[in-house]
What does this fold into?
Amino acid sequence: MTTTTIPAEPLAQAPAPAARGHVTQARVLHSEWIKLRTLRSTFFTLLTAMVAMIGLGALFSYFTSSHWASMSPGERAHFDPALTSLRGYFLAQLAIGVLGVLMISGEYATGMIRSTLSAVPKRLPVLWAKAALFAAVVWVLMTASALVAFLIGQSLLSSHHLGMSLSDPGALRMVMGAGLYVTVVGLLGVAIGALIRNTAGGIAALFGLLLIIPVLGEALPSSWGNHVNQWLPSNAGQSLLALHHEAHTLQPWTGFAVFCLYAVVALAGAAYLLKRRDA
It folds into this structure.
């Protein structure tokens, strides 16, 4: 008896798995850009900050100009035409600070952070991308808004010959300083949002640091307050927005450097905890 050997058919080759792209900082930046521009809250919050910067600056300039004749000599002596047109930065910082906190705390609230960190296992590129992207967007928009606010404000003040030119000493530094100050506020918001991971808590901590602590510092005896208050975050940063240097305040760029140092320390703490804690 003979047996017939049936040749075995070759096994079908399984398709090769698709090559997975490497996680690069550029790709993480691109993904964060998609998140940022597709959220409606981003558009409306940035628009609010721009309207506040320009609108309030124009409003303050208009009322100062119209009430100049009735102002007291003391008020006239302390009048700063550049700062008057840039007053809107105070409200703009609130909007940008809130958005900075939301940049990362919002992902913790929805649980999306788990997907984000699964796609980027090293984690830190996510924080750097969020911080760098947000800083770039805020700096461009706020600096442009500050410039528009300055030009509109000075045109309104010129009716009483109170305006100043962008080429006057200190004017350009103040315009650029408004954009830089609000940008660092936004970076502090991102860092605190990553540290606390809760939107309400992050916003409270940010504005407690920027607004409440300086008020409490005013209650210190002058022998202490003169030395302490100038080093507080917002006081140091706002020295960039002073036309003339005053006693017991830091020099403009020195103060801004101190303000940036606060943001760097907060981001370093956020990076450390992002690596150590569970999502």
Observations:
- Residues 26-50+90-139+165-276 form one domain.
- Residues 1-19 have pLDDT under 50 and may be disordered.
